[in-house]
Amino acid sequence: MAVTYESLMAIQRRNLTVTYTDKDTMLYALSVGMGTQPLDERMLPFVFEGRPMQTVPSMASVLMRAPVPESGLDLRHMLHGEQKLKLFREIPPYGSLIVDTGISQVIDKGAEKGLVVIFESHARNVEGAAVFTASTVILARGDGGIGAPPGTLPAPHNIPQRAPDQSIRIDTRPDQALLYRLNEDRNPIHADPKFAEKAGFGRPILHGLCTYGLICGALVRDICDGDASRMKSFDLRFAAPVFPGETLELDVWCDSLQVSFRCRAPQRDQVVIDNGRCELQPAQ
Fold this sequence. Notes:
Layout: H1 5-9, E1 12-20, H2 22-31, H3 44-47, H4 60-63, E2 78-87, E3 95-108, E4 115-125, E5 130-140, E6 166-171, H5 176-180, H6 193-198, H7 208-222, E7 231-238, E8 247-255, E9 258-265, E10 270-280
Antiparallel strand pairs: 1-3, 2-5, 2-7, 3-4, 4-5, 6-8, 7-10, 8-9, 9-10
């Protein structure tokens, strides 16, 4: 059955209890590269309970429980456009969160161009204090022309025109997607070569949210010196797929407590992440 504007906006889930353990948190951290340098004390708190544990902030994208599969949108023609995160406090390394999730906005670009659909989740701890708001922006290319309101998204963050202040190398593993899919994202396009080929890719591609986590982890490690509590927001746009095993180059511009970033796959001379912006707390 085709989706309607009313059916999409009716997708609202309230008071979901999301419970996770330190094992889940460590698995997520490992799947986004936080264990690649096991002697680095900036990484150990994310992957080893023998240190005061921390959570990679981008794990919010796993905990947010966005109801994408149940939306009825055509998954075959869906593109992940943007991912946004606002943090009100550190995400606990284990425990329970109460999550309200659903579709916050639908923008109709017409039958030829599709819909822009924004999934938004608000998480709070069991005491009722806000933990994070996470948003996923989807371009549903096969579902336009349903009579939803027209509109535009906010303008993307502008990357500074000067040379980057720092470049960070991110090495992805050949099995990165197979590891990341254990975070409850088992889309076969990330594992099955035949499925990926039918989708127009020569081989399985990396989850966009894995790239999101790899970049978040790199910024926490190298810009925040391993202190995840400094991150207040973390937003970016997806520009092109990443293939497991590729080396990425993350260019970073630091302007006081605002960090801008862009990520490239240099071997392909391809920008894969653009318009990145991260807000920081002052260092203690």
